Amino acid sequence: MNDFRLFPQRASTASHQVDSLYIFLCTVTAFFTLLIFALIVYFAFKYRRKNAVAPLPVPTNYRLELLWTIIPLLIAMVIFFWGARVFVYIYRPPRDALDIHVIGKQWMWKLQHPAGRREINELHVPIGQPVRLIVASQDVIHSFYVPAFRIKQDAIPGRYAIIWFEADRVGEYHLFCAEYCGTEHSKMIGRVVVMEPQKYQEWLAGTPAEESPAASGQKLFSSLGCIACHGEKAPSMAGIFGQRHRMSDDTVVQVDEHYLRESILDSTARVVAGYQPIMPSFRGRVTEEQLSELIAYIKSLRDPTSLKKTD
Ligand code: CUA
Question: What count of Cα atoms within 13 Å lies in the side-chain half-sphere of residue 265?
């Protein structure tokens, strides 16, 4: 794999932005450190105590005081707005991103491609394609960290965290767990393989076909009995993903992964207006993986006619 290096490789669009800001911060810090040290030495000589001289009066110099207040303020503002821009970039996935579910558990990473391919401790992605990661944990807090992409996202039990990247350099990169999660935390490592789109398609096709998460989710939707109510006593799932719905408490909710997760586990937390809070909670009855499959199924129902009863 990669040799040890002081600075990780840059392999994503975000990595260049993060590094520019980082280098700017280091330069500003180094400049002022040197300036202040030089001035300390210079002033120590210039204003050293001489024999039999009364202390110098301290003159008031408003211009100087304004200058050393305003210049640092401007520099701090540059850092703030630049940092905010990079932050927003990293946490706002573009719409055409490929959704990949990431589940951390003691002590491995499980990854699920939308086309059905599952991976453990390895993630294959095409170059130049935004990839949106929906990160969850099955047990304790883990942290999905790819230094070459300059992304690190905690996997927190009980919720989804979302982050994205677009790889821009073919190669193999380290994947770490960056949060101490128990005895074998240090073994919770893997690799991310960035491939040419053509190679990625071959890789996807080159393995025995696995069921897509949406197909597994559809089976669960029947076997868990969801299908008995949804569409009749409960809202239909057809095409709801991405829509905005009014809740019984008059708030408006955007149907996304977070809302679907909550509605399955804490089913009565936010109920669509016009329906009764009668759905049982599925907390403890579905695993993180099943949860992501159910959500993949609901996402696949963009076409309202595609929800058919199966037995
Ligand atoms: Cu998982 Cu450290």
Answer: 19
